[in-house]
């Protein structure tokens, strides 16, 4: 729920209109830059006629601006991911109080992020990096604190419908900065503050603020500078593969806003309509194609839900089956190229994206076929009427949908052939979609409609990238706190079978996938789980497919799976009714996930056939990385044991003597360290 203030009048209304126009114009210009820069880079590499010095740095800055300006845009349009628990509160004062509390806390967190991002800008200023046009990079980086300050201001302005409520929220914003000046106080009350943040999240604060706040609180507790959170956010957003995320999201939005869905429905109906349950198959196919570009973000359900639900109802399918299929179809296609979660997992887990795409094709087809098979079963049992097989209609429908069908083919061909990187292929896809829907089919007007489509896409991208960045900060804390090390040690001592580990992994990912947004789950969990999977000999490519397939299933898992929430919102149906409707799909897809998990050849067959040398290198690298990781973890655990022994010795010495022991113990520790150094030298010799 987003409570917006009443429409302003006079000068304030004019200022708001100018601000919105400026935001929309900047977002549109950033999309143009992100699409053209990779394309120019590819042309320069191939034909040596175009060259933009410092192309990569400009692209990084464009994505940085897109993330934070898009985040401000998402704040304006109410697009940030929030929990819907406030709907359970009684309307009126209780709901207003909860909303004021949630947005005020979120505003204070954003103010603290302004402080941490300003520290990061100061560090970048000292680094002295300069763009090729002579502009210092730190000046461009100022978009971080400025946009976060604008977001904090919007939190305060949207915290209450009355002016006095907004004034109170504004007055409380500086409290976020004050926390940065009292790290000892924050450390002493870390769990109380965490509870407040979680409570605010439950009643409507965006999830990205909760993740960033928890990371900063824990960093305070560990006496680590909280600028580490902004550094992790900056590192993720400016990574080399991230530009593919906004480009492919824009591609999906452009296709969704055109009449592409109708053409694809006609195509799949012509291909499968003559079969029992053919309409259900066409729904699964159309949803898989759109989810491939929108990445399980819910756009498929919102954009196509009404269309495919109406088709199912017109052909005699009951409400329960139809709603369940729409909810399940919203995540089908998650494993197919050029799906965004695959790219993101490849970045976070440091595995080749092309190998992961190859590995996901057969498992993705299995999941689609299982849903289609259930549709065939229901169609045959219910005697759903079938369309006659018509070769002429197949040819006509294929010709009409040829442009949309060619988009994934072009992306895959460019990337798989090695002619372009994934980012460059994504730029081609975005420009190609614009050419198709604006210039060929003319479904979208270039002046009246295209900028609006890009602005909608920019708001979603800003929400996703800010969520990813905040999740990266939390992930950084978990790694610094050696959570993977301790978890690996516990698993090694208590679980000895890879099969048991995989079963536990499936259950864990299923539950987490139902409560975590997919992008944040991909950022937070792989750094923890990848070393453990390596310990049990699971190929990192296979691990990626298992991970994504489980998250795909988690979208349907009660009580708050993302697809359940979106379907409930889109069709105004109670959540508890949807639980009953999705049970068959949960069981069917659950079987598919178990097959994917315990039959690794299903995932690895294509990569090992097409990329045998690369897969062998990945296996060898996995062994080397795990050996290094295990040695490092063992040394850290031994160091902790030594520290505990030293503390125990300190206690014994302090009890046995009345004279100060700090200095003798220091000397004794130094002697021990010297002995250790000599021993290590002997071992090396």
Per DSSP E runs of 2 or more residues, the count of β-strands stands at 0
Judging from the principal axes of the Cα atoms, what is the shape?
globular
Q: Could you report the average pLDDT, rounded to the nearest whole number?
A: 81
Strand content: under 5%
Radius of gyration: 27 Å
The biggest beta sheet reads: none
Overall SS class: mainly alpha
Unreliable segments of 5+ consecutive residues:
1-5, 650-685
- Give the number of helices: 32
Query: What is the terminal-to-terminal distance?
Result: 67 Å
Helix amount: over 70%
Give a brief rundown of this model.
The protein is mainly α and 685 residues long. It contains 32 helices and no strands.
Model description:
The chain is an all-alpha fold. It is built from 32 helices and no strands. It has helices at residues 10-47, 55-77, 93-127, 137-141, 143-157, 163-172, 174-180, 183-188, 190-202, 207-221, 227-237, 244-257, 260-272, 278-294, 299-314, 319-329, 340-349, 353-381, 391-400, 402-417, 422-440, 450-480, 483-494, 498-515, 518-524, 526-535, 540-554, 562-571, 575-598, 600-610, 612-656, 662-684. The chain is globular. Mean pLDDT is 81; it is low at 1-5 and 650-685.
Task: List strands and helices in order, with pairings.
Layout: H1 10-47, H2 55-77, H3 93-127, H4 137-141, H5 143-157, H6 163-172, H7 174-180, H8 183-188, H9 190-202, H10 207-221, H11 227-237, H12 244-257, H13 260-272, H14 278-294, H15 299-314, H16 319-329, H17 340-349, H18 353-381, H19 391-400, H20 402-417, H21 422-440, H22 450-480, H23 483-494, H24 498-515, H25 518-524, H26 526-535, H27 540-554, H28 562-571, H29 575-598, H30 600-610, H31 612-656, H32 662-684
């Amino acid at each position: 729920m987003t409570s917006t203030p009443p429409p302003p009048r006079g000068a304030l209304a004019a200022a708001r209109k100018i601000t919105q126009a400026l935001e929309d114009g900047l977002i549109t210009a950033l999309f143009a830059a992100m699409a053209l820069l990779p394309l120019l880079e590819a042309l320069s590499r191939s034909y040596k006629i175009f060259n933009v010095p410092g192309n990569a740095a400009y692209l990084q800055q464009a994505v940085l601006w897109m993330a934070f300006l898009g985040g401000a845009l998402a704040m304006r349009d109410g697009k940030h991911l929030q929990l819907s628990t406030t709907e359970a509160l009684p309307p009126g004062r209780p709901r207003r109080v909860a909303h004021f509390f949630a947005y005020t806390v979120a505003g204070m967190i954003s103010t603290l992020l302004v402080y941490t991002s300003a520290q990061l800008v100061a560090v970048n200023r000292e680094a002295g990096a300069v763009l090729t046009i002579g502009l210092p990079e730190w000046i461009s980086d100022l978009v971080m604190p400025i946009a976060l300050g604008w977001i904090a201001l919007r939190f305060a302005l949207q915290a209450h419908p009355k002016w006095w409520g907004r004034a109170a929220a504004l007055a409380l914003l500086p409290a976020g900065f004050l926390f940065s000046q009292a790290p000892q106080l924050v450390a002493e009350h870390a769990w109380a503050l965490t509870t407040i943040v979680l409570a605010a999240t439950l009643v409507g604060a965006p999830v990205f603020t909760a993740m960033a706040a928890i990371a900063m609180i824990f960093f305070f507790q560990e006496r680590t500078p909280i600028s580490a959170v902004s550094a992790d956010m900056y590192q993720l957003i400016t990574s080399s593969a991230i530009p593919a995320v906004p480009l492919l999201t824009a591609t999906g939005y452009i296709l969704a806003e055109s009449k592409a869905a109708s053409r694809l429905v006609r195509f799949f109906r012509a291909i499968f309509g003559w079969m029992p349950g053919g309409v259900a198959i066409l729904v699964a196919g159309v949803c898989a194609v759109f989810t491939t570009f929108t990445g399980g973000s819910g756009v498929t359900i919102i954009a196509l839900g009404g269309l495919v639900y109406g088709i199912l109802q017109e052909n005699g399918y009951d409400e329960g089956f139809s709603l369940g299929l729409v909810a399940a179809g919203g995540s089908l296609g998650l494993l197919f190229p050029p799906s965004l979660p695959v790219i993101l997992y490849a970045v976070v887990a440091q595995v080749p994206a092309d190998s992961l795409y190859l590995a996901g094709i057969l498992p993705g087809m299995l999941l689609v076929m299982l849903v289609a098979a259930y549709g065939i079963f229901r169609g045959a049992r219910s005697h759903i009427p079938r369309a006659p097989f018509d070769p002429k209609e197949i040819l006509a429908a294929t010709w009409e949908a040829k442009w949309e069908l060619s988009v994934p083919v072009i992306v895959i061909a460019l990337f798989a052939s090695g002619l372009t990187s994934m980012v460059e292929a994504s730029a081609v896809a975005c420009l190609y979609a614009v050419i198709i829907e604006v210039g060929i089919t003319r479904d979208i007007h270039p002046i009246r409609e295209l900028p609006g489509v890009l602005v909608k896409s920019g708001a979603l991208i800003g929400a996703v990238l800010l969520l990813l960045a905040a999740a990266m900060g939390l992930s950084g804390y978990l790694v610094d706190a050696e959570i993977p090390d301790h978890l690996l040690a516990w698993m090694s001592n208590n679980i000895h079978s890879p099969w048991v580990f995989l079963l536990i992994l499936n259950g864990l990912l299923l539950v987490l996938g139902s409560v975590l947004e997919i992008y944040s789950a991909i950022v937070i969990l792989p750094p923890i789980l990848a070393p453990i999977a390596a310990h049990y000999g699971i190929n990192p490519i296979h691990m990626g497919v298992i991970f994504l397939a489980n998250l795909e299933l988690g979208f349907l898992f009660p009580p708050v799976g993302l697809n359940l929430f979106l379907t409930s919102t889109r069709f105004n149906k109670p959540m508890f009714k949807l639980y009953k409707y999705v049970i068959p799909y949960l069981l069917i897809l659950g079987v598919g996930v178990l097959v994917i998990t315990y039959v690794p050849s299903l995932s690895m067959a294509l990569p090992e056939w097409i990329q045998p040398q690369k897969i062998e290198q990945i296996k060898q690298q996995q062994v080397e990385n795990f050996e290094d990781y295990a040695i490092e973890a063992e040394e850290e655990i031994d160091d902790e044991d030594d520290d505990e022994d030293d503390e125990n010795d300190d206690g014994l010495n302090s009890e046995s003597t009345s004279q100060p022991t700090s200095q003798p113990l220091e000397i004794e520790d130094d002697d021990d360290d010297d002995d250790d150094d000599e021993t290590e030298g002997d071992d090396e010799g």
